[in-house]
Amino acid sequence: MVRITKKEALQIFKEATLYELGKVADEIRRKLHPEGIVTFVIDRNINYTNICINRCKFCAFWKPKEHPEAYVLTYDELTRKIEETIQKGGTQILLQGGVNPELGLNFYLDMLKFIKKNFKIHIHGFSPPEIAFLSKKEGLSTKEVLERLKEAGLDSIAGGGAEILSDKIRQILSPNKITSAEWLSVMRQAHLIGIKSSATMMFGSIESDEDIVEHLDVIRKLQDETGGFTAFIPWSFQPGNTELKRRYPEIKPSGAVRYLRVLALSRIYLDNFKNIQVSWVTQGIKVAQVGLLFGANDFGSTMLEENVVKAAGVSYTVTIEEIIEAIKQAGFKPAQRDTYYRVLKYFSQ
Fold this sequence. Notes:
This protein is about 45% helix and about 15% strand. The protein is built from 15 helices and 10 strands. Strands 2-3-4-5-6-7 form a 6-stranded parallel sheet. A 4-stranded mixed sheet has the order 8-1-9-10. Helix 2 packs across helix 11 (about 255-270). The longest helix is centred in the middle third of the chain and has 18 residues, at about 210-225.
């Protein structure tokens, strides 16, 4: 297949019908995944702290350290959450938190070592903002921080903190956060030392169509360079309870049509990504199900716990059984996978 350019991507995104976008995306997905298998992973989001100095305007989860609801998880709480995950067949935890200025590298190393000593589970952890902060706080290079985290037990990195990789947008959404170049640099360095990661995009706030295409383009270029991304996950901004919504009251949550258009464009443009994931967390299980016909081949995580989107007033929950049934109803074969998209278990139709 001939690779499309940014100009062509923008044109089809603006002009193609939903049906046309979906048809092309579905054809690409069929060529990449002719067996018709749709995967999912059993895991839990564990937010080890909600204290954060970035104070992003799109986030309703963060708290200042003096807030009565501010916290840092104890090891007892961490243990309970991981034990529950394993009891439900979980193979991975997504370990993320705010950028807490009082937590140094040793906190992270000790937490990783504690988990690995007591549990056999994959740690899909942190994100570029957390890692870049530790680098600056400790006076170490990004590579040194990543190598020490890896040695302590970090298995792969989450794609969070990307939002839209356009600095003019980031200056409004998250002026205290790392730049686009810094996000890409952390991911590049991680890939070069053998740490795989996912990539994400949060759309539906104040970005333009051009910004969305630019985001996809820089992700595609880095994947060309390193091949270190396992999957791409576009998800829609949830404005409830956020400062951004108070500043821009006209912002409305992205509906199903916009979501499916972005999902399809992602599949079409990211020709070097094998896996595209739906976001039932922000769109609900029915729209996610339709997304399987718009280029996606993965249903994401069972997400036994989710706090960040919930803080914005959106709380979709699904059971493992509901995910399996949704995949079957869409005409696909459900399978449980691990973090690296290796199938662990098939479910009969």
